[in-house]
Design a protein that fits this description.
single chain, 4 helices, about 50% helix, about 0% strand
Length: about 80
């Protein structure tokens, strides 16, 4: 048996979550342990690169510099 020390407020939150599913705290924790068995492979997290891959390759530093020059070439000429 393992004893985990948590604050009373944290214990109350866990008991409430267990009760919301109609389970005792012990039964709820056992259910959680079954859902996530030790050594089971976890789904990898999505990286920013993976989320933006659908937009194609990123612009190069030269392309960024060229775009800046184009955007700001007439900046301040009307004053």
């Amino acid at each position: 048996m393992t004893v985990i020390e948590i604050s009373d407020s944290q214990a109350a939150v866990l008991k409430a979550r267990a009760a919301a599913q109609g389970l005792s705290l012990k039964a709820w924790i056992e259910k959680l342990a079954e859902e996530f068995p030790e050594g089971s492979p976890r789904k990898p997290l999505k990286t920013g690169r993976g989320m933006l891959a659908k937009y194609g390759p990123a612009p190069s530093a030269e392309e960024i510099d060229e775009n800046r020059r184009e955007m700001f070439q007439s900046f301040g000429q009307d004053f």
